[in-house]
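Sharing a chain and its predicted structure for anyone who wants a worked example. Both blocks are below, sequence first, tokens second.
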Amino acid sequence: MDRHLDDRRVGRVAGDSGIQSTGWGIPQERGALPLAGMLPCYDTYRCADGGYVSLGALEPWFWRKLVTRLGKEDFGELQYAAGESAEGVRRDLQTIFLGKTRDEWIRFFEGEDVCISPVLSLDEALSHPNSLRAAWSWTSVPPLGGTERQLGLPIKIAGEEERAPGRAPRLGEHDDPVLAELGYSGEEIDGLRAKGVIRKRGTP
């Protein structure tokens, strides 16, 4: 399997480039694209404790249930509002969400078919049950002692046992095997070490 980050980036911008080429006239700027802040139904909102919730009520039924639960049925026809109308809805929603903490809002919508989720910190995300179940992070012992958390492999292959990632090496720890694999003899490697090209063995 050969997977490059650039491939993912090209896939991500395919929709945006399509919007631009169709002549819709939407500028390719932050906050001007439908899924990047243009629509108040698809945005993040700050809460009373400084945390954020992520709102993804792009489908009509999500939006209807959201505004009904908030007691803002008058927003029903403003899901895809643009321009000043969108800013008005966004300001009102921001005021509403500032009335409770992030976790209070999640409890408020619990059991409701509303597309809303907490914006988690990195520590919260890595300790989330979904992350633990998918083995997204591992605890390893670094060469200088202690423990550290590393990200796991993002690609899971059916039938293969999950492997913990290797720890970070010391500087120069793998000089000899790497150079040997490249065809250098033991004498040549010792010569590079004597000239200071690579680190001496046992150097911290």
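Comments welcome. The CA atoms of residues 79 and 121 lie 28 Å apart.
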